[in-house]
Design brief:
Strand content: under 5%
InterPro entries: DUF5997
Distance between the termini: 50 Å
Largest sheet: 2 strands, antiparallel
Number of domains: 2
Helix content: 55-70%
Structural class: mainly alpha
Pfam family, one: DUF5997
Shape: flat
Length: about 140
């Protein structure tokens, strides 16, 4: 059985929108109704049409993009009561005058990042020690 060339594999509209970082219901109907090949997706990324550039610039943005722009997790968005997509203007308004929940979620996100960095450093040190032991025992 012959495989399909990678560039001709078809992504569902939901996956293509996710890869492009756009909110699917805000895309044109022709994008929502048919699959996109990997080659077409690559072309959209390299040379975005006006509708894609406008969506990326102004929104509405999907939750992962909103969370990233606010510096918090998707779960933090939900805890803050944000369940719908937001426009760039709405995101900018939240950043300009952050509500209490956003300040709290940014603190949580900062602590999580610090802990992840601490764990990564610890694992790197353990790997370095194991490597040194392996080298010593090999000599």
């Amino acid at each position: 059985m012959a495989g399909t060339p990678f560039s001709q594999q078809v992504l569902k509209p939901t996956n293509a929108a996710k890869r492009l970082g756009v909110y699917l219901p805000a895309t044109p109907p022709e994008f929502q109704e048919r699959g996109v090949t990997r080659a077409e997706l690559e072309e959209l990324e390299k040379n975005p049409p006006e509708w894609l550039a406008d969506l990326r610039r102004n929104g509405p943005h999907p939750r992962p993009v909103v969370a990233g722009r606010l510096g918090i997790s998707i779960a933090g968005l939900a805890r803050g009561g944000i369940t719908e997509p937001l426009t760039t203007e709405e995101i900018d308004a939240l950043r300009a005058d952050p509500p209490e929940w956003l300040v709290r979620e940014r603190e949580v996100a900062a602590r999580v990042r610090e802990e992840e960095e601490r764990i990564a450093a610890k694992e790197a040190e353990q790997a370095a020690r194991a490597e040194r032991r392996t080298r010593r025992s090999a000599t």
